[in-house]
Write a structure and sequence with these properties.
Strand content: 15-25%
Low-confidence stretches: 601-617
Protein name: DUF2813 domain-containing protein
Helix content: 25-40%
Number of strands: 19
Pfam families: AAA_15, OLD-like_TOPRIM
Organism: Brachybacterium saurashtrense
Structural class: alpha/beta
Shape: globular
InterPro entries: AAA_GajA/Old/RecF-like, Bact_Antivir_Def_Nuclease, P-loop_NTPase, TOPRIM_OLD
């Protein structure tokens, strides 16, 4: 089973939204775009343990915090999910609630004309529609929520008034047992608090116990009996024994105690199941100390890996059942190699994985067709897989890391080489210093993308445009005209600049003052890596010869090994904005102005980053 589509109404910052999922899906978008809200919405509709939380929802879960309408009637949170790829057991259990689904058009065929004739077409499958409904209950002064089958819908004229006014309007309940059959697991970014690794209801350890088979009831009974029969008893500790006798003597003067020494006693707990669930903790010993301590005393990375290890146990216990695994920002406190390892396991072992991340090490593990870009238009929210027709598999594989970083950005600036990358970064740093109203490309969310050469720059414009990004391009003047496809691709750029020179070095020396070139040569000639084939003695080089010499030095030390040291040093000699190379400076100012006109999206559902987490202790 997997989630194919999710529709959200009036939940947190989303008034209306729709997300399409693949078998494995990476959700990407800016901070507070709504990634956590999507994960929470999935748990509302599918999470079997969510109903253990009381209340299931609260005031802040409603869009704009409005849970009552203008007339005082309750507003409803609605989360609809379409589940496909059902197992034989799921098909049998849910058969009366299934509908035929066109997986290409992403719609139920009974909503289309000639639906009967297309019921067995390729791409048409059985799907299970379910819905979560939540609202404020005025009579109870509380918030309620439940999941229901969303097919078949009851005939309203066959329902009485109470049924029509009920939470699901007469729909059949999609129970906790039904949800467990779906195999939904949610690993929150902050799920390393005390609850996740305790034995409280709905925790990971509790889930493992429940999936492991029968005997949980006997386990609690045996544990409680063992605590009661401790030998020696807790109360036999000498200091507690003295206190116990004092209490029994003094209390006996006012209360008719039972006879014997056991009329007052100390035990290790309240001797109830619920109290044991609260107090039992997992202890772990790690090197180099080798001393067992409560898991919460371990490092954050170790705790996260411990949580993940428990999730793999749950996946194994489900055996042939398909697991829908939702994982939020697994990169927190994990080094890059562990991020890759965790992500590979999830993609390979889980029936469906839905992951949010800001880490390129995780993003690069997903093929482009599995990347879902989240976007907003006011309160309307959407998420759909990127258009892979613009991304050739070979291109994506060879540029996987750069693509991963670009996916996370607000905009992409495509450049032709490493020297251009360094020059743009250095000029942006200088502008940040010289202008109070300018933000560095790093701070405005612009990714610099190295296309490899000037002819390759245009091909990336439609690729990044398909990701919903602003796309900019800069390259040198060509010595021969572009091919027809390149000319067409250039139209996809939001802005495109072609240099008046055939090389970046010419731009750097022709568009800076003579003083800057002189200062640059004075600086680099002292370096051990200065190219000795181009000697420089300040008194012996005329002003008219500085540009030619500076070009030769820059070209001799071009490339990854020297590029930043030489190109960056030249830009650093500029002391005012006017001294910066105008071609690069003006392009960066244009980009900065356009991005400032479209500020990065910040939503009003700040609770999506905090309210979704389980409480820490």
């Amino acid at each position: 089973m997997r989630v194919r589509q999710l529709e959200i109404e009036s939940f947190r910052g989303i008034t209306e939204g729709r997300i399409v999922f693949q078998q494995h899906t990476l959700l990407v978008g800016g901070n507070n775009i709504g990634k956590s809200t999507v994960c929470e919405a999935l748990e509302l509709v599918l999470g079997p343990e969510r109903l253990y939380r009381r209340p299931v929802i609260d005031e802040h879960d409603f869009s704009h915090g409005t849970y009552l309408g203008d007339e005082g009637d309750p507003r409803e949170i609605r989360v609809r999910a379409v589940l496909t790829d059902l197992s034989d057991e799921q098909l049998r259990r849910f058969f009366q609630h299934l509908r035929r689904w066109d997986d290409e058009e992403l719609s139920f065929i009974d909503e289309e004309p000639d639906s009967v004739q297309s019921a067995d077409d390729d791409g048409t499958v059985w799907a299970l529609p379910i819905i979560f409904v939540g609202r404020y209950d005025r009579e109870e002064d509380d918030f309620i929520g439940e999941t229901f089958f969303d097919h078949p819908l009851p005939e309203l004229d066959e329902l009485d008034e109470d049924q029509r006014a009920s939470l699901g309007s007469g729909r059949a309940q999609f129970s906790r047992a039904h949800k467990r059959l779906c195999g939904f697991i949610f690993l929150r970014a902050l799920r390393t608090g005390s609850r996740a690794l305790s034995l409280q209801r709905g925790s990971l350890l509790d889930t493992i116990l429940r999936l492991g088979g029968e005997g949980a009831a006997e386990m609690w009974q045996d544990a409680l009996g063992a605590l009661q029969d401790l030998d020696p008893a807790i109360g036999e500790i000498e200091q507690l024994k003295v206190i116990r006798e004092d209490i029994r003597t003094r209390l006996g003067k006012f209360v008719n105690l039972a006879p014997g020494e056991d009329s007052a006693a100390f035990f290790a707990s309240d001797l109830t199941r619920e109290h044991l669930r609260e107090v039992v903790r997992l202890f772990v010993a790690t090197q180099p100390s080798n001393h067992s301590v409560p898991f919460a005393k371990q490092g954050t990375g170790s705790i996260n890996l411990l949580v993940f290890a428990l999730l793999t146990i749950i996946a194994d216990l489900k055996q042939d059942q398909s697991v829908i695994f939702v994982m939020e920002e697994p990169e927190i406190a994990l080094p890059p190699h562990t991020q890759r390892r965790v992500t590979k396991y999830v993609v390979q072992q889980m029936g469906q994985s839905i992951v949010t991340s800001h880490s390129p090490y995780i993003i690069e593990q997903f093929d482009p067709e599995n990347v879902v870009i989240l976007s907003r238009d006011g309160d309307t929210f959407s998420g759909a897989p990127i258009d892979t027709t613009s991304v050739k598999p070979k291109t994506y594989r060879t540029q996987r890391r750069q693509f991963a970083e670009a996916i996370l950005s607000r905009a992409v600036l495509v450049l032709e080489g490493q020297t251009e990358m360094v020059a743009v970064h250095a000029v942006s740093s200088a502008l940040e210093q010289f202008r109070g109203d300018y933000s560095h490309v790093d701070l405005t969310g612009v990714t610099l993308f190295n296309a490899g050469n000037d002819r390759e720059v245009p091909r990336y414009a439609p690729i990044f445009k398909s990701l919903g990004k602003r796309v900019y391009g800069i390259r040198d003047k060509l010595k021969a005209p572009d091919a027809a496809d390149a000319t067409e691709n250039i139209k996809s750029f939001d802005e495109f600049w072609e240099s008046p020179e055939t090389g970046i070095e010419q731009i750097l020396v022709k568009q800076v003052p003579t003083r800057v070139m002189r200062s640059f040569l004075d600086e680099v000639v002292q370096r051990d890596d200065y190219p000795t084939s181009y000697p420089y003695v300040a008194e012996q080089v005329a002003e008219d010869d500085l540009a030619a010499l500076a070009v030769k030095v820059l070209k001799a030390r071009k490339g990854d090994a020297f590029g930043f040291g030489y190109t960056g040093t030249l830009i650093e000699q500029c002391q005012t904005e006017d001294e910066l190379p105008a071609f690069i400076r003006d392009a960066l100012l244009t980009i900065n102005e356009q991005l400032q006109d479209e500020p990065e999206l910040i939503l009003d559902d700040a609770q999506s980053a905090t309210g979704s987490a389980e409480p820490e202790e």
